[in-house]
Amino acid sequence: MHYIRFLKPPRPLITASPASLSAKITVTTDLGESFLLSNVSLVVELEFKDGTSVLGEGKGREFVWKGRDGMRALEILIQVPVSKGGRKIGSEMVRMLVGPKEDALAVDSFRKILDMQHQNDDSGEIGGIVPIRSMAIDINPGAKRDDTPGVGMAQRVFSMGSGNSQKGLRIWEETGESIARHIWDAGLVFSSCLAFLSLSDSTRSLSHAQKLPILKKALQRPNLRVLELGAGCGIVGITLASSIALHSVLLSDLPAASSILSRNLSTLPLPIRPKLSSQVLDWSSSLPSNVASTRWDLVLVADCTYNPDVVPDLVATLGRIVERRVVGKETLVALAMKVRHESEMVFFDLMRERGFVVRETIKIPLPVLGGEREEIEIFVFAYRD
């Protein structure tokens, strides 16, 4: 998959006449290691904080990402009308939205993510691009502005479920270069699977390759206690808490991810918010007392095996967690990964040595626009008594 990112978040050009917003974007893979190599039409829209279109429905400005020419960044400049429907725009906050013009390319729902696997085409002509929404921007000429360089925020929005189960998920991530505070492919695909596994009709929603009966049954346990390791932005744990009735979900990561986790938890709907919490958990240290004393039913891990140097600490942490399980009751470990290097396979050797066995696994094809097809793998482990 590819992701639209703000290299320079939108800023008002007050001296321009009429007033305008400028930004710089790029379109890259999840880790930013490669750029989109295809030519794609993008549409830039503006909306008020209440979601009303500023420019008018279907009147966004079109820009072209020229990946075939080696484009690495695209400058955006869009004029802001003085008023819209009796609303004086200069007195309100607005957001900038950037996404592909072709709806089939827009990764804006979990259903689309799971349906991508059925696009059996290795030509590089199909794939997905995740749209982006900026923070609210004050374009009032008299507004106080901070020109100090810093890290901004941007939002990803996905619809969950289908039909009457359709809900929206909004996840903030940083616009900076830190990979710890962005959404990655395996976490996004894993979230999509969890959302559909929670539906009563999920066997119709998922292909045969995506059925995870052991994990699905585990999600039906009453008072489920879930721990996520290396949560990053928190999309996996937040998706699960938004999809099923459970006791609690604890999102954990290093201190660098604390601020983005707190932001995403603080903006959740009130009915969901009490079920979620976050805290620092360093795999190279002993377990915090509250984690060590809890009998966890399920541990979630996504996109955490890319660095083989920390894998021994990850496996050791998982071992310490399952040691606290209730006798006769499994603590499952559900892991999602996109293999980026053969060195990641050391994780499975260490898990086997530590006493874990794979109970079930699936592979989900992921077409890449302008590139070769990739795969997301999901493994469900249990501890061997």
From TrEMBL:
Gene3D superfamilies attached to this UniProt entry: Vaccinia Virus protein VP39
Tree of life domain: Eukaryota
Signal peptide annotation: none
Cellular component per GO, a single term: cytosol
The name this protein goes by in its record: Non sense mediated decay family
Bilayer-spanning residue ranges: none
GO molecular function list: S-adenosylmethionine-dependent methyltransferase activity
Coiled-coil region: none
Record-linked InterPro entries: Methyltransf_16 (IPR019410), SAM-dependent_MTases_sf (IPR029063)
Organism: Hyphodiscus hymeniophilus
